[in-house]
Amino acid sequence: MNDQEGNNPERPDGEVNKPEGEVAKVKRGLQALAGGWRKCDTTGMPVCLDSQFFIRVNAVFAVIFLLIGGLAAILLALTRWEAFNLLRTDMFYRVLTLHGLNMLIFWILFFEVAILYFTSTTLLNAKLFSRKVGWVSLVLMVVGAVMVNWVIFAGQADVLKTSYLPLLAHPAFYLGIILVAVGTLVAVFNFFATLYTAKRDRTYEGSIPLVTFGAMAAAIIAVVTLLHGAVVMIPTFSYSMGWTGEPDPLWYRLIWWGLGHQSQQVNVAAMVAVWYMIATLSTGAKPINETVCRGAFVLYILFINVASAHHLLVEPGMSSSWKIWNTGYVMYLAVLASMVHGFTVPASVEVAMRSKGHAAGIFGWLKALPWRNPAFSAALLSLIIFGFIGGITGVTLGTQQINIIAHNTLRIPGHFHATVVGGTTLAFMGVAYYVVPLFFRRDFVWRRLARIQPWIFAAGITLMSFGMSFAGSMGVARRTSDIAPAEEAYGAVVHFFLAMVGIGGVLAVLGLLLFVGLVVATVLFGPSNVGRPMKCWGTAVDLGSKGAVRKGKGGSHYTPGTVVLVGIFLTAFVVYYFANWRALADVWPVR
Amino acid sequence: MSLESPKEDWFEPPHGAEKIWIGIALAWCLVMFLMMPYWHLFGQQNTSGETFRVSPRDFEERVDEFVEANQVGELNGVPVVEPPPGGDAFLLGRMWEWYPVLKLRAGETYRIHLSALDLQHGFSLQPLNMNFRAIPGYDYVLTMTPQEPGEYTIVCNEFCGVGHHLMVGKLIVE
Lengths: 591, 174
Ligand code: HEM
Ligand SMILES: [Cu+2]
Description:
The complex is a heterodimer.
Chain A: E1 4-6, H1 19-33, E2 37-39, E3 46-48, H2 49-80, H3 89-121, H4 131-153, H5 171-200, H6 210-240, H7 249-260, H8 262-283, H9 290-303, H10 320-355, H11 364-367, H12 374-397, H13 411-440, H14 447-473, H15 487-490, H16 493-525, E4 536-539, H17 545-551, H18 560-585
Antiparallel strand pairs in A: 1-4, 2-3
Helix pairs in contact in A: 2-3, 2-4, 2-16, 3-4, 3-5, 3-6, 4-5, 5-6, 6-7, 6-8, 6-9, 8-10, 8-12, 8-13, 9-10, 10-12, 10-18, 12-13, 12-14, 12-18, 13-14, 13-16, 14-16
Chain B: H1 16-42, E1 51-53, H2 56-70, E2 71-75, E3 78-81, E4 88-94, E5 97-99, E6 101-104, E7 110-116, E8 121-126, E9 130-134, E10 138-144, E11 150-156, E12 168-173
Parallel strand pairs in B: 3-6, 4-7, 6-12
Antiparallel strand pairs in B: 1-10, 2-3, 4-5, 7-10, 8-9, 8-11, 11-12
Bound molecules: protoporphyrin IX containing FE and copper (II) ion (CU).
Copper (II) ion is lined by residues 93, 96, 121, 156, 158, 160, 164, 167 of chain B.
């Protein structure tokens, strides 16, 4: 392997460590923080201690919920794998509810709040706006999450994460979700207030960094999302208490998906911000064009707001033109944004690698990437799984008419386990390989295992996602404990694909448990790195003058490798998309 | 780099490969957008926009009338009903059955009224894999033309309580 390792400080890029810059920065940091801060032993950046506290606590809770969700996942995978069909039917839906909420809501939201605190303080040399507000948010979120888990375990909320009316759960279920949502809004407020005070006190010069900008995009979408949550959950809570009448089930679905889908856009924006961050930390990449990267984040903010529509494609009540407009115009400009990031992230890495002297041929730079750095592998795998599997399937399944041959089949979980699990969750795992050493100040234990962890998780999720997608294409329904009563209709091959779901699922959970084990063991027993830089995971080597000779060609926009990669991507996309129209043309005419 | 403030004048138009990719991606998004209205006008499989509000009880009554008028047999205790070709047919999802069994003729077009009585259910016609939602309070009219004769299965693919996986119905095409 070609990368540097050992006790060298993490030196992502020359610029961070420019001596004058550092002095000035620390000085500014000192003034801004006036106590309550420390200097990061690795990067020299000032770390606000309040912020550090909340980053730690939110990350710890995130991992706890990830573990609960992961234990549930293994039971689900072993139930859908027909050879085991492990859970009794009522338990399956209880565990599915548990899994959906702990994973999609609690793990993701707690981790995102940690990311918001990090990007608004350390990256801006700023102090967290308010410790009290941080506490309010934390308490609301934790109480809410505990309430929800408690009613689920008590068997009072077997309604799945969508809780579609007229299904009704115990009021504590809705109240818990409302508390988590409000707590998250409070954290988002703390984030914006921190951005404001940092700007006012001039803790940084010029514009905010790209990663903070991405987090800000996520936070803006989160506000709109959580307001939808309030609009739908408050009347439902009130109905469950018997105070008001039953909300209309179709209205419920429309607004619920304003929450459910947009929150996925929050996850995408946060994930992309993490890709940029890890690309910088591990290869020294800088955005080739800040305008393009930021513009793509702005597209997310502007165009995702009505994406609720693509969950309502095969239901009564909405006209075709409404469906086409909202999925097409509004969603595809957000798709455009993802396709832009899918180019700019690898391109920035390629430019960085070439300028370090790894310039041979089209793909020569790939060999020299820091493959032994688990954060890097996680980000890379996240980008591939999100783009090639999650993105392509998502856009296709969300096409108005194609949805007829996909709605509520296993194709849907096949798709979103590639976006929010293979994409977002894996990217968040990657960033944890830096968060733990930098904020808990302990170096990772079992570093060899850490290096393979992202690969195990990615392999498992990919296998499971393929299994689900193929079984779903043959008609197998999602959210079903046992397909035996209907299996003759599906054909015999589905047994094979469901076994694939089981095997992939078990592998993915092993990857997840390994991650949790590594993080917990490190936080508890890892060697302290206080007073010295974190132990480096490996960064891309600079060949210096030896490579400099070869730098010249095409300047900083020469990215042939990335061009080939996006070409392959687009080809796969076009083929899959039209294959689905082809399949649709074979079913009965309907209008 | 992405963790630091960019240089003052960071605004610049895209160049080179990046610019071309943005153009291609935009063009592809437009193609995908246009495919939907195109299929709406020229394709055979489109989701219906025809919906009526109906109370679940009223819908159930209509289904019963429909069954009474058109029943031709029984399958596993569920009435088999043959609607007039080209006419209206009713299908009700409830915990945990699809009611009744429809008997249709290949090549004829039917207006199938789909709704749910108690909870939301998912109409999933197998092995064709055509999926629509049944929501209480809404009469969803699917204008369908069955093709190959045979016995089809209707699976419920929206969670509707512990008996959900048992909610399997039949549809016959002659
Ligand atoms: C670690 C490995 C994981 C495995 C093996 C796994 C497995 C599964 C399985 C088997 C289902 C049931 C599919 C069905 O029958 O409909 C499911 C549902 C789901 N999973 Fe996962 N999952 C994993 C991780 C995650 C993560 C990290 C997230 C979110 C961040 C997530 C979000 C969901 C959601 C939202 C559902 C749907 C719940 C519902 O239908 O209400 N999963 N998962
Ligand atoms: Cu059902």
